[in-house]
Amino acid sequence: MTQPLIQMQNVDKFFGSFQALKNINLEVHKGERIVVCGPSGSGKSTMIRCINRLEKHNNGKIFIAGRELTDSEKDIDAVRREVGMVFQSFNLFPHMTVLRNLMLAPQLVRKNNKSKAKETAMKYLERVKIPDQANKYPSQLSGGQQQRVAIARALCMSPEILLFDEPTSALDPEMINEVLEVMEDLANEGMTMICVTHEMGFARSVADRVIFMDLGEIVEEASPQEFFENPKNERTKLFLSQILSH
Amino acid sequence: MEAITGWWDDYFFATIVVLKIFMASLLLMVIFGLIGAAAKLSNSIIAKKIANAYTIIFRGTPEILVVLLIYFGSAIALTALFQVFDPSIKYVDVPPFWAGTFAIALIVGSYATETFRGAFLGVEPGSIEAARALGLSNIQTFIYIRIPEMWRIALPSFGNHMLSLVKDTALISIIGLNELLFVAEQATATTGKPFTMFIVVGLIYLGISTVITLFVMGLEAYGRSHLRAVK
Amino acid sequence: MSFDISLILDSLPKMLSGIGLTFQLLILSGVLGLFLAFVLLLMRLTEKWYFSFPAQIFIYVFRGTPILVQIFIIYYGLPQFEAIRESIFWPILREPFGCAIVALTLNTGAYVSEILRGAVLAVDRGLLEAGSALGLSRNQRFIYITSPLAIRLGIPPYSNDVISLLKSTALASTITVFDMMGIARTIVAETYAPYEIFISLAIIYMIFTFFIQKGFGYFENFMSRHVKK
Q1: Neighbours of C42 (CB within 10 A)
Q2: Of chain B residues 112-151, which have a CB less than 8 A from chain C?
Q3: Which of A149, B57, B211, C62 is 20 to 30 Å from C77 by CA-CA measure?
Q4: pLDDT digits (tens, 9 = 90+) for A89-138
Q5: What is the spatial distance between Cα A23 and Cα A43, in angstroms, rounded to a whole number?
């Protein structure tokens, strides 16, 4: 069996005296699509933010593509090149055009030259279906368009893994689908992804595995079918009844 | 360093003078600020125009100019006034203490009007609505809901106003008040060590600023104490 | 008490002849102060205590003491030391104008560096996280993300500081600089007409303040045309 792309072993994370993550053990293989769900404060965002070191785990080990994530700057930089992230609030750089947003990191981090960066950028803009917005500024785009740009921006770094932190939670309902469609396309093309979301329809159709977290722990892990039709843990059942009832 | 020894007394009393000016002008500044804010928030167009003019005038005029204008100007105005009653009066002197205090209170007060106005408007409309819905009278709403939130919002800026006030007291030495800079100038004439004398002034002002800053920080912490996260 | 219009008309040109010095004080101190502010900011932001600590002390001292005291220390105080009188800086520090520039520069430098620091802290953390996630280094994030945005955020408070600087230039008159304020005080001493002279001078300063504010307003709108919604 090939080595997992992501390995988290006995990971704990504390914010002061509050324990946000309790003994997290997780393996993600190349090509897997994972959806993480759970109530607010369950630690879902914290967990994925530990993977690209936006949060620092206190105990345990994290391995990305075989490389351990430590305090070393080199390790962190290496990891961040391979792990892309899409944020709930898009976080597009407001003072740069869409094109520049996409080209910045490839030029600065991968040291690509301008024309190569531009080529890559336009390619991914077409992928997310908004090549005509290249010279606009983020403030001129709708929420759905901004998030698609954010996805393209992450893709321009050709990451091995994409992390999604509640990508549609800040969108107006009519724009959620355009973003989910892009994410589904990516999933179907084999992108390894971990997606924290409340969109259960997405989980059912796209995920290989659904993970339920509560109070900092991974409570249940199963295939979507198992998860939605035959949840084993009481807390999982409670959560599902709460979110699926309306 | 020994140059200072004879002068500790004078510096001490001068510091007291500075503190007195600070207290007096603080009170006046708050009054001017509140009146100005009330005028800006009122429905009267005239009041708003006057209050805005107040802010514009003192925002755009150098502080030293205001001090000189009020000191000399009030002396002349009062002299003219008194001469109406008793033509033999040649010159009415306005004590520099009061002219100066009034001047700096006016100056910082103009900034305070904005601070107080912003604080009033910054109160959560939701809280006011809730108070009304619960049946609290206007006065009760003002005292129990508005004011607690207002002083917390205004505090950082108000702290800066207090610091401005302290530093502006130095300007009053220009019109001859026996405060710190004035004492330093006299001491320089005798000791011939201007640097030492003026540094002491600087250190005293720094000390006063520090105390005020710490005081404001303490108040800010008190103001936030209800926000401590529940364990 | 009369209001002598002819006196005003007579004095205006004299006071306005001081504009040159007022503007020199403003522009020179403003520009030098801005450079100083950037240097102080970078010193303040590093993790190296031997840069950060002195910067903090400097800012603390210059913001915590009256400008007038700072001016007096530099103009009256420094000549006390032989080392100063014999240094290469003496030609500058001997002159009232030079001392005024030095004092105003140091003072505005301290205030503006705090403004810039506030602006840097105000940049949305999410944008910096996005930069981290993309693999940008600390320096790259500071240059490409923080700085452009902090500059835009800093414009309104900076414009206030420029206005304060304009008002502070009037203090140079206390050490015999003949800017507009200096000339005005001389005229008042001769004519005993503080109202006419000082009020007209106040109006002149207010007009300048108005134009400075307007100018910065346009500048801010221009810079923020894409950033603000």
Answers
A1: 15
A2: none
A3: B211
A4: 999 998 899 999 999 999 998 899 999 999 999 999 999 999 999 999 99
A5: 12
Phi-psi region of B60 (alpha: psi -120 to 50; beta: other; left: phi over 0): alpha
* A130 Cβ neighbours under 8 A, 6+ residues apart: A98, A145, A148, A149
State in Å, rounded, how far the first CA of chain A is from the last one. 42
How far apart are the C-alpha atoms of A85 and A157, rounded to whole Å? 11
> For position B43, what pLDDT does the model report?
86
Q: Which residues of B touch C64 (CB under 8 A)?
A: 163, 205-206, 209-210, 213
pTM: 0.83
Tell me the one-letter amino acid at B66: V
Report CB contact under 8 Å: A54, C129. Answer: yes
Range of the domain at C22: 8-227
Contact B53/C at CB under 8 A: no
Has residue C2 been placed in a domain? no
8 Å CB contact between C198 and B69:
yes
Continuous segment of H or E residues that includes residue C57: helix C49-64
- Answer whether residue C20 is part of any domain: yes
Question: What is the interface size between B and C, counted as CB pairs within 8 Å?
Answer: 124
Q: Which positions ≥6 away from A39 have C-beta within 8 Å?
A: A214, A239
Which residue ranges form the domains of chain B, and what is each CATH number?
2-227 (1.10.3720.10)
C133–chain A nearest CA distance, Å: 6
B198–chain C Cβ distance below 8 A for any pair: yes
Arithmetic mean of pLDDT over chain B: 87
Number of Cβ atoms within 10 Å of the Cβ of C200:
16
Q: Nearest residue of B to residue C211 by CA position?
A: B60
Query: In Å, how far is B108's CA from the nearest CA of chain C?
Result: 13
CATH number of the domain within which C56 lies: 1.10.3720.10
CA distance A130 to chain C (A): 19
* Chain B neighbours, 3+ Cβ pairs < 8 A: C
